[in-house]
Amino acid sequence: MNFIQNPVRIFLFNATKPWEDRLRILESLMHMDKIMSTENESWSLNNQTIPTWFYQMVFSMGIALVFGFALILFGSI
């Protein structure tokens, strides 16, 4: 099994090497502490509720997840 894992690991490392900087930037953008940070200029301390765009994002991800599972389920039948 190790003779398969080693080449695959080397291939994945070399395949993602040109994208490393882009992936690092994307990772820094996706941190929730940056999105929900109180240092944001549009953040109001009087507004302690969660913004509606956050609920919309969670709801749309849920719909996409259910749709994906349904496609997999119907594809396997």
Summarize the structure.
By secondary structure, this protein is mostly helical.
Describe this structure in words.
This protein has 77 residues and is mainly α. The chain has 4 helices and no strands. The radius of gyration is 20 Å and the shape is flat.
How would you sum up the major sheet?
none
Poorly predicted sequence stretches spanning 5 or more consecutive residues? none
Mean pLDDT across residues: 76
Distance between the amino and carboxyl termini: 32 Å
Structural category: mainly alpha
Beta-strand content estimate = under 5%
Task: List SSEs in N-to-C order.
Answer: HHHH
Name the shape in a single word.
flat
SSE layout and pairing:
Layout: H1 2-16, H2 20-29, H3 32-35, H4 52-76
Keywords:
4 helices, flat, 77 residues, mainly alpha
